[in-house]
Amino acid sequence: MKKAFLLVLFSMLIASATFSSSGPNSTFTDEELKAIEAFWNFRMELTLLQDDDTAAKALEDYRINRHQNNLSLGEEAKTVIECNILMESFNYLYGFAGEHKESRKDFENARKKLKACMGSRHDSQLSPYTLLCYADITSYYMAYSIADIIMMGMSVKKYQEKCLEQDQFFSPAMINYGQWFYYSPKIFGGSKEKTRQWLTKAIDNSKSPAEEFYARTAYSQFLFEMKEYEECKNQIEKSERLCPGSRYTALLRTINSQGLSINDYNKTKSKILKSAEEYKKKNKIED
C-alpha cells in the first residue's frame, strides 16, 4: 500500500510539471513541425501575460485560431497540438492534475485519440513529440485514479525513454525524464544524480529559446532543492534573459526568496500533494 501511495504522489508531481514540444521527425511535414514549434514558443510567451485567467483566454483563442489554420495538417500533428493546448489550459485553469474531476473525461478522450493516431505502427515510425505527448497526457489522465496510477505509472517513463531512443538530443524529453527521476522515490528508481545529468543535458541540447527557458527554469529549482542557491539564481537570470518580463521567473524568484522551491510551493497550493507529503513524512519514506 505504501508503494501504491508513493506512486500516486510522484505521478501527480510529474503531471504538474510536464512538457511537450517539437523535435526532429521524418513523419511530419515542415508545415507540421512549424505548427508544433509555434505552440512551444507560444507557451513561453503565455508567461508574459498578467494573470492565469488572461493566459487561459489566450489559449482558448489560440485553439480556435489554430483549428482554422491547421486544416492542412495531418491528424497526428493536429492531435499533438490539441493535447498540448488541453494540458496547458488545465494548468492555468486548475493548476494540478487530479483535482478537477470533471476534466478527466477530456484527458481520457485526448489520450484515446492520440493512441488511435499512433495505431499499430512501430515506435520507430512515430514522432518523438507524439511519444512524449502520449507520456504527458497519460500523466494527467491517471492522476484521478489510484488503480490507473498503479497500472500506468511506469508507462510514463517508458514512453519518455522511447522518445529519447527516437531522438537522443530531444531537450523537452530530457526535461521530463530528469524530473521523473527527481520525483520518483528511490524504490522506483529515483535518483537526484540522474536528475542533474538529464536537466543539464536538456540545457545543452536546447534548440530554441523556449526549450532552453524551460530546461533552465526546471534546473534552477532542482538546484534550489539541492541548496545550491547561487547557481539557482544564475539559472533564473539566464531564463529571464530568454523571456524578459516572464511571470514564471518572477514567481520562482519570489518563492525562492521565501525559502520555497516550486515543488514546495505546489504542495501549498494542492491539497492532494500536501496530504501525500504528510503521509511520506509520517511513515519516514525516503525520496
Care to give the gist of this entry?
By secondary structure, the protein is mainly α. The chain is built from 14 helices and no strands. It has helices spanning 2-15, 30-46, 52-69, 75-93, 104-118, 128-142, 146-166, 171-183, 192-204, 209-225, 229-242, 247-257, 262-269, 271-282.
Structure notes:
By secondary structure, this protein is mainly alpha-helical. The chain contains 14 helices and no strands. Helix 1 (2-15) crosses helix 7 (146-166) and helix 8 runs parallel beside helix 10. The longest helix has 21 residues, at 146-166. The model is unreliable at 1-12 (pLDDT under 50).
Between the first and last Cα atoms, what is the distance in angstroms? Answer: 16 Å
Largest sheet: none
Secondary-structure element series? HHHHHHHHHHHHHH
Record field, number of beta strands = 0
Stretches with pLDDT under 50, minimum 5 residues: 1-12
If you average the pLDDT, what whole number results?
84
Tally of alpha and pi helices: 14
State the share of residues found in helices, binned by percent. Answer: over 70%
- Identify the overall geometry: globular
From the helix content, strand content and strand pairing, which structural class follows?
mainly alpha
Radius of gyration: 18 Å
Strand content: under 5%
